[in-house]
Amino acid sequence: MKKRAMIFGGLVLAGSLAMGATALGAQITDSRAKDIALTHAGVDEEDVAYIFAKTDREHGKMVYEVEFLTDDYKEYDYEINAEDGTIISYDYDAEDSFYSYIPRDQLTIDISSEEAEDIALRHADKDQEDVLFIKTEFDMDDGLAVYEVEFYAHDGIEYDYEISAYTGEIISYDYDAEDSLRYGARNYRR
Asked: What is the dihedral of CA 57, 59, 64, 70, to 10 degrees?
């Protein structure tokens, strides 16, 4: 009887170790997480001033937080599922002002709210039919005119953009699959 219990216990332990090894083996490396973020952002590694990745727990899942800054002062932040490499969220901010080359007295609003929406939708690779609703607001950010564009896609992903009202350039954006599902984006209508 003792022998059977030891054999059974050994099998349970071996099975647990094998499952643990499989789960650990499925985890991507920090190097792979960096590659995923750089590829998604369309940034070459030689154009990066710094990059780092660290693991963290988010909603019970192991994730990589990847952050990098390009030589032209654009900051990217990614949250990547450590098990399968899926991008959970990302954002981008231009750390250097797009307006520095335009004298303040010559700044004119040349972009309409509809054009700002089109810019955001094109960047997200979405059409009007792909979104549940879209909200655009004109705002002054540090004395400069911007459009804040927010929309939810049918796949439950939330997108937020800040677009220059002068040039149409994207100042910042973020994408979040997790929060939009948690807060019920599927219930929104245009």
From this structure: -120
